[in-house]
Amino acid sequence: MKISVAETKAAQAACFAIRRAVFIEEQQIDEAEEWDADDATCTHYLAEDADGPAGTARMIAKGDSAKIGRVAVTQAHRGTGLGQRIVEVVLADAKARGFAEAELESQVTAIPFYERLGFVAEGPDYDDGSGILHRVMRRRLG
Fold first, then answer.
1. Per-residue pLDDT tens for 76-104?
2. Which of 141, 140, 92, 83 is nearest to 112 (CA)?
3. How does strand 43-49 pair with strand 2-5?
4. To 5 degrees, how large is the angle CA 114–CA 105–CA 135?
5. 36-44, long-range: CB within 8 Å, 24+ apart, which pairs?
6. Are 2 and 49 contacting, i.e. CB atoms less than 8 angstroms apart?
7. What's the gap between Cα 62 and its chain centre?
8. Are 59 and 66 in contact (CB under 8 A)?
9. Do 68 and 104 meet the contact criterion of CB atoms below 8 Å apart?
C-alpha cells in the first residue's frame, strides 16, 4: 500500500471519489456539507494499492496546528489498519512541516480509533451540519 500526497489532478480526483463513496453515498452527508473551499488549498493524501485508490485524508494549516479531516477508507479496505496508517502518514508530515499539534473533528463513533492514535477528545459533542455528532480532538506533535 502506497500513501502519499495527492499532487496531481488525477490523484486528487481519486481522493474526491473515495470521499463521495464514503461520506455522500454511504453516510448520506449532503454534498454541500462535504465539499468546501479548503479542498482547493489543503494537502490531500491518497492511499492506493495495485487495485487502485483505497483511502484518503486531508490536512489544513491553521497557524501552528494541522487540522486533519475527511479521513476515509473504501469498504474493501476497512479493518485492515489502513485508516491508522493514513493518519500516521499525515501526522508524520505535519510534524515534518513544523506543526506543534494536530486537531480534528471526529465523528463520535470514531473517537476510540483516534484515541488509539494519541488524540484526546475535548468539549461537548456537536452536529457539524452533517447530521452526525462530532467532537474536537487534539494531539501534540512535539
1. 999 999 999 999 999 999 999 999 999 99
2. 83
3. antiparallel
4. 85
5. 43/5, 43/93, 44/5, 44/6, 44/11, 44/12, 44/15
6. yes
7. 15
8. yes
9. yes
Helix (H) / strand (E) element for 33: namely: helix 31-34
Homologous superfamily of 2-140: Gcn5-related N-acetyltransferase (GNAT) (3.40.630.30)
In angstroms, rounded to a whole number, what is the distance separating the alpha carbons of residues 94 and 67?
Answer: 9
Please report, to the nearest 10 degrees, the dihedral formed by the alpha carbons of residues 101, 12, 126, 132 taken in order: -140
Pair 51, 21: CB distance under 8 Å: no
Give residue-wise pLDDT tens across range 96-139.
999 999 999 999 999 999 999 999 999 999 998 888 999 999 99
Q: Tell me the pLDDT tens digit for each residue of 2-54.
A: 999 999 999 999 999 999 999 999 999 999 999 999 999 999 999 999 999 99
98: phi then psi, degrees, rounded to nearest 5: 95, 10
94 vs 14: CA distance, rounded Å: 22
Grid coordinates belonging to 29: 452527508
